[in-house]
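Dear Dr. K.,

Following up on our conversation at the group meeting, I've run the structure prediction for DsbA family protein from Saccharopolyspora rosea. I'm pasting the input sequence below exactly as I used it, so you can double-check it against your construct before we proceed with anything downstream. Let me know if the numbering doesn't match what you have in your notebook.
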Amino acid sequence: MPKTNNPLTKKSGLSINVVLTVVVVVVAVVVIGGVLLFGRGGNGAPNQAPNPGQPVAAELLRKPDSNMLSQAPDGKVTVVEFLDYQCPACHQYYAALTKKVEQDYEGRINFVTRNFPIAKAHPLANQAAQAAEAAGMQGKYKEMYHALYDNWQSWAVAPSGDNVSDDQQRAAKLFDQYAQQIGLDLNKFHQDMNSPQVKARIDRDTADGTKAGVHATPTIFINGKQFETPQGVTYQQLSDMFHGEIDKALK
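The predicted structure tokens came back this morning:
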């Protein structure tokens, strides 16, 4: 197959592993539970923990102030996802897996999200991470996280539908709309997006992810052990496998 420069079909803009369909087809596949066709966003390097088979240290995966979608009193199970908001695979995981996991295990697991924007492949990834972190500074991280993914095609994809967008102005206007919808102070939101504090949080997440062996997004850990994603399975099979790992850890 000839090479292509389409950011929706290559792994973080550096190498092509698995050809992705255009967004409309991907959405259709999600709906019907079709076979996983996507490759994760990354640099093409092996995505392994520093010591394969050994859990990554909890303090590297989660900081005391890390953003959480769910929190469990006993803290028996902690899921950590390193994500890139503009990454097509991250959005597909959200639609097919992580949104449901968040709902199904609300209050039963710790679900931590960390930033790992891959700007070379996804020009708006860092801007979206800034929006999420700025919302978090007003106590609305979860709401912005969902707004970014639920409206992903509106800001993350070019109008043609076959490339990721690099339109920062369009994204900024849409992020402002989401901020208003979830009740943020818009002036503070703008200030926080460009603040040293938000930059430091994103840089820290990325550095921790790199130390943990993250090279591609999404990369997910369950109690420190990386969840390996097989190619060629259906979305339902992927969901069943992931739920099975969590259920086993909860016993």
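Two things stood out to me. The chain has one domain: 7-250. The chain has a mean pLDDT of 85.

Best regards,
J.T.
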